[in-house]
Amino acid sequence: MLKKIPSPAPALNVGKATKHDSADRHVRGNALYIDDIREPRGTLHLAPGYARESCGKIKSLDLDAVRSAPGVVAVLTASDIPGLNDCSPSFGGDPILADGRIEFHGQVVFAVVARSHLEARKAAKLAHIEVIAETPMVTAEDGLAREASVLPTYEFSRGSPEATIKASPLALSDSFRIGGQEHFYLEGQVSLAIPQDQGEILVHTSTQHPTEIQHLIAKMLKIRDAAVVCECRRMGGAFGGKESQAAQWACLAALASHVTGRPAKMRLDRDDDMIMTGKRHDFRCDWQAGFDETGKISAVEVDFLARCGCSADLSLGVNDRTMFHADNSYYYPENRITSHRIKTNTVSNTAFRGFGGPQGMVFSERMMDAIAIKLGLDPLDVRKTNFYGDSGRDITPFGMKVEDNILEELVGELEQTSDYRKRRQEIQAFNTRSPFLKKGLALNPLKFGISFTLKHLNQAGALVHVYTDGSVQVNHGGTEMGQGLYTKVAQVVAEEFGIDLENVQITATTTDKVPNTAPTAASSGTDLNGMAAKLAAETIKSRLIDLAAKLYQIEKSAISFANNHVQIGQQKIPFAELTQQAFLQRVSLSSTGYYATPNITWDRDSKSGRPFLYFAYGAACAEVTIDTLTGEMVIDRVDILHDVGKSLNPALDIGQIEGGFVQGMGWLTTEELVYDDQGRLRTHAPSTYKIPTASDLPDDFRVKLWDSPGNREDTIYRSKAVGEPPVMLATAVFSAITNAIASLKPGVLPQISAPATPENILAAVKLMKSGD
Amino acid sequence: MTMRQSIRFVRDGKAVELTDIGPNDTLLDYLRLTEESRGTKEGCAEGDCGACSVAVGAINKNGQLEYQAVNSCIQLLGMLDGKEIITVDDLSRGQEALHPVQDAMVRHHGSQCGFCTPGIVMSLFTLYHKGIKADRQAINNQLAGNLCRCTGYRPIIDAALESCNGSLDDRFVQAYAATTETLNKLDDGQDVFLGTPERFFAAPASIASLAKLYSQHPDAIVVAGATDVGLWITKQLRDLPKIIHLGRVEGLDRVEDNGAELLIGAGATYAQAEDALATIDPDIAEVVRRIGSSQVRASGTIGGNIANGSPIGDSPPLLIALDARLGLEKADSKREIRLEDFFIDYGKQDRQPGEFVSYVKVPKLAKNQFLRSYKISKRFDQDISALLAAFRLTVEHNRITEARIAFGGMAATPKRAAKTEKILVGLDLADQSGWTKAAETLEQDYQPISDMRASKEYRNDVAKGLLLKALHEISHAVSDTASPETRVIGQRNNSLREAV
Ligand SMILES: Cc1cc2nc3c(=O)[nH]c(=O)nc-3n(C[C@H](O)[C@H](O)[C@H](O)COP(=O)(O)OP(=O)(O)OC[C@H]3O[C@@H](n4cnc5c(N)ncnc54)[C@H](O)[C@@H]3O)c2cc1C
Ligand code: FES
Ligand code: FES
User: What is the fold of B369-479?
Assistant: First the structure.
């Protein structure tokens, strides 16, 4: 049973499908990104240089030709760094400039500083770097063979799964791969550093984590945090790729500016960006499961072998989250979930929307498909059989109780509205009569835990100023990457003061307004910053109420704010009149707000407690057609039903759902990262790495918000986070493809890995057709 | 004839004249760095993301002003001579009301991070100016080269459906007459030459001037649409001191239907040639539709696709299967060769110093000839082929009397499948027994390689699958019987009976 949720008061701003605060500027082309800021005169430009090899000791570094190339002002190497040469967000191992050895192909060894971007790029090609090449560890298997890891193995276990699987009436085991993913934010990595008075430095940086960059620059330059300001008005997309890995470029721009005394900008060329920055972790996944003839699982064992790349970066949290989502929506009575964090000589993999969760769910969904295929059951029935349920079937592998499960209702509704059962029959009929083309259908659920699993990150600050003319300025620690965070927070503040959204001025995120912030990540931006801004606004509002009560000699309860006015008993005055009064009466109109998420208690060492405040839910139904002669595939139709609690802004939420789904769909279908045997990425440009384009969106695409009574937890206006979960709706596409291939030989599990490119689909089809 | 030492284009209604441009300067750098108009974004600098899309206006063959979206990152600035350039910064200045396309994008929530948005707006601006009621397919085609990583496209498509609806009402429409006049004035028929004999941008106005200039500078790079050459500059960072642009050469862009065959001038863009090519067979239309994006097809040429000599260009195998011939020309001499003979080896073509491609002649299909062509790529739209297959079978009384098979992506050059063709000749289309053997023979014709687009195993398997597919489709077309569904993309209109 759901806890009763208090029904909210009618809202003026929240819940409205307000447009993105920058929408007009986006379409006019005058929303400024960092590369669009008019550079101060004399700004210098950087380009990175790297070796041909993938790993080994640097024997010699000859930069003479680089130095004497046209336009070059300076060439930076590790020895130019006065302080700490590391931009790791966690355990070190990410030199800003390689010092002595390189660990992956594309690791930056030096940086050219020149008058123009083009001159810098051309000069960077002229270096002679000699490396005593070692045999690189390219695949997870290579790393495993040498027992190389970036972090210790971590495990959740319950019961004795191995024995239980052996004793089970039925069992399956399987190994398959899940590919990585390039973020392909449309705006590449970019930072502009401008020296300030008294040795301070201002860095405009396209990042989800200005605070971390501030700290890293300070450490690198051996100056105090207080002397560095990092600012970000907006990013042209990030998706996790600018959480930790925006830092190196900001550091280099700052270093160039420190060395030359001039403003310096570093903007990565697209190919450099794709070669030099980390991606979604790719996995090999080995599993076995025991179950009965209804498909009900008794025990699961799974080993996740993650290619982490050359350093730890954010791999701890990412891989933990894979484990936290290896159950997706299903109860595993007994389980062993093991995560191996393998080191390879490839770029360090990093955060990417979903932060490891998607890989966990691709596993659980493949397991459901495998069981259904083996038993000849409808995969949806197997899924439902294994859903979390009442007491006794509601404890996750990490010990947290699932208290807010709405999947039965949500999935039931989608099953109806998508016409799942009828289409299942139609598809069977189609497959019987069609020799070359085969269809598949899948309806997959999702349950995603909301909160940073690193507890201390679940905090946020905001700063709200009210001016005497009644206009309001809001600032907070969250960053805007397109998700509409600024808009939602402004809606919250406008709601508090009962004023129109136009009266709330949104300002750039900057470390000198709100300090010591967490990254904007884990879908938590609105949950955290919205709450902090609300608290700041409430503080000012309560001062205004006190003032009005005093001035008008009236009960506080008779004072309310709406429609740009303040109702004071029978009297109604403009909001701006009260703010003017406040100034005259010497009442502060500025306040900070601070929020720390309650009720989360996860302790990683003891593997106990509650990592998540709540879960977000959703489900998707996908229908595909494959061509068994070529492996080509089209997605015919997709239906989505997704839970965002009480939506703060349905337009923005739908945007996150659709965009997230399509991004997940790309990850599992056309987006393929290909490395050669030396660990060099071969797909480092949009010409070879294919993200979805307009025609990949299914012709029939139906997306709905689940009609929720609101989050049972006391989140901002009872909404739910929406940034990441929709990516995982795309598992339905992968399952539908599996389903289509499986039609070729009932009872046999197709050997398909992700992404399901035409090539991978055809290989699986071929196996189905050959022998038994 | 006098020579002009400047380039001129129209910006904001006025002619702009530049006398000092580098041969490798790009339009995007001009806009962002020289003009400091920073609405136009750089997302990749290689023609693949569309963030840099701008609208280019030019007078078409019917004397009409026509707007096309191009990727400014790989357009050489000199190529814009005689054109109008419109960027997102120009659509609605200052406080002016939003353009209908912009307005629809806002109301449908078509931007999230907004970085792709200027390019999308400009791409849709050109669709708007087509004055048609755009359907989903037209929108997909227009947007194939505009990547958006945030929205998943649905709101953008909705904005396009709403705003590109056939109504034409913006200030650019009102200015058609004036712009046409300005552009006509700029069209002076003079040769353009900027720079020195060692380093120049040239745009000859006639075939004779082109032949002469190229013979004087056989080391110059001939540029048609720059959709290949542009990347040598922006990605390989090559310095190309001498550029000869073909875009102003009178008559080089002709597209003629001579009854039995088409003649396509080397300077004709895909956009200019696609309607004529489509009359030969719907599969040709589909292959052309899937070459690059609307931006790429607005600039890129079949002549460039051929001259580039790549083993993965899409038009060569298709044209070879059709038995096309290639016209080559230089000062004082002209010749015509079979297209397949042009491709000698990887990176090596039958083209002499100072010689340029002048046209390609494409025979149409005889009544008893059947064409099937398939493009295989990881992503359907705007992707380079893993392989491209083209089959032309001549059929008499159900028997194959001639077979022309050509593949791209299967060898170091676009290449025919000589052995397989032999096996096919004489086969009865009503009898499937010989098909598998024919398909297996492809392995003797081709030894493909593995790369990031596909493994050699996949290339071999698909090549076989495509031959079988073509045989199935053609046998049904010949017997005029209903075929089971054979395609997930590029459906042919089978109601058009292909009579023998
Ligand atoms: C994003 C993108 C997508 C693409 N997609 C495809 C695709 O799907 N399929 C495909 O086949 N190609 C594709 N291409 C490659 C390219 O667009 C084609 O090869 C195009 O046909 C080249 O024509 P162009 O006029 O732009 O050639 P240019 O770049 O101008 O020239 C190409 C080469 O041909 C030479 N050349 C050009 N014209 C002549 C002439 N008349 N005589 C002698 N030499 C000449 C040039 O010197 C140069 O060597 C793509 C390119 C991009 C950027
Ligand atoms: S910048 Fe990507 S197409 Fe031009
Ligand atoms: S809105 Fe971000 S890429 Fe399109």
Answer: Enolase-like; domain 1 (3.30.390)
Which residues are registered as beta bridge partners of B408? B388
Evaluate if residue A12 carries a pLDDT over 90: no
Give the Cα separation of B284 and B279 in Å (integer).
9
Query: CATH number for the B100-169 domain, one of 3.40.1010.20, 1.10.10.10, 3.40.50.2000, 1.10.150.120?
Result: 1.10.150.120
CB contact under 8 A, A658 and B489: no
**Candidate from B117, B145, B469 with C-beta closest to A629:** B469
Q: What is the ipTM of this complex?
A: 0.97
Mention the CATH class of domain B255-363: alpha beta
The number of the ligand 2 atom at minimal distance from the alpha carbon of B73 is 4
CA of B42 to the centre of ligand 1 (A): 21
Which candidate, B103, B91, B95, places its Cα nearest to that of B175?
A: B91
Give buried/exposed letters for B265-274 (b at 16+ CB in 10 A, else e): bbbbbbbbbb
Q: Which residues pair with A618 in a beta bridge?
A: A446, A642
Is B469 in contact with A184 (Cβ distance < 8 A)? no
Cα(A257)–Cα(A254) distance, rounded to whole angstroms? Answer: 5
User: Is B331 a residue whose pLDDT tops 50?
Assistant: yes
- Domain ranges, ordered by start, for chain B: 3-89+176-245, 100-169, 255-363, 369-479
Chain A environment of B150 (Cβ under 8 Å): 186, 237, 482, 655, 659
Report CA torsion sign: A520, A526, A532, A536.
positive
Together in a domain, A589 and A470: yes
Tokens coding A705: 């918000």
A381 falls in which pLDDT band (50, 70, 90)?
very high
The 10 Å Cβ neighbour count of residue B19 is: 10
3-class secondary structure per residue, A476-531: ECCCCCCCCHHHHHHHHHHHHHCCCHHHEEECCEECCCCCCCCCCCCCCHHHHHHH
Do A373 and A749 touch, CB atoms closer than 8 A?
yes
> What is the pLDDT, as a whole number, of residue B467?
98
Ligand nearest to the CA of B227: 1
As a whole number of angstroms, the distance between CA B244 and CA A195 comes to 45
Residues B449-461: tens digit of each pLDDT: 999 999 999 999 9
Report CA(B119)–ligand 2 centroid distance (Å). Answer: 9
CB pair distance less than 8 Å for A687 and B98: no
Question: Given 3-state DSSP classes, what are the helix, strand and coil percentages for chain A, each rounded to the nearest 5?
Answer: 35, 25, 40
Q: For the segment B407-416, what is each residue's pLDDT rounded down to a tens digit?
A: 999 999 999 9
Calculate mean pLDDT across residues A158-163.
98
CB B112 within 8 A of CB B156: no
For residue A290, being part of any structural domain is answered with: yes
The tens digit of pLDDT for each residue in A43-66 reads 999 999 999 999 999 999 999 999
Look at residues A402, A427, A449 and tell me which one is the last residue of a structural domain.
A402
Least Cα separation, residue A248 to chain B (angstroms): 20
Q: What is the pLDDT of residues B147-168, one digit of tens each?
A: 999 999 999 999 999 999 999 9
Amino acid letter, residue A350:
T
Torsion of CA A421, A426, A429, A434, to 10 degrees: -130
Enter the pTM of the model. Answer: 0.97
> Residue A515 belongs to a domain with what CATH number?
3.30.365.10
Give me the pLDDT at residue B500, please.
Answer: 36
The domain in which residue A582 lies consists of 23-31+459-596
Residue A162 is among the residues annotated as catalytic for this protein: no
- Enter the DSSP assignment of A38: P
φ/ψ (deg, to 5) at B14:
-120, 150
Q: Count of residues for chain B?
A: 500
Phi, psi (deg, nearest 5) at residue A372:
-60, -45
Q: What is the pLDDT of residues A117-149, one digit of tens each?
A: 999 999 999 999 999 999 999 999 999 999 999
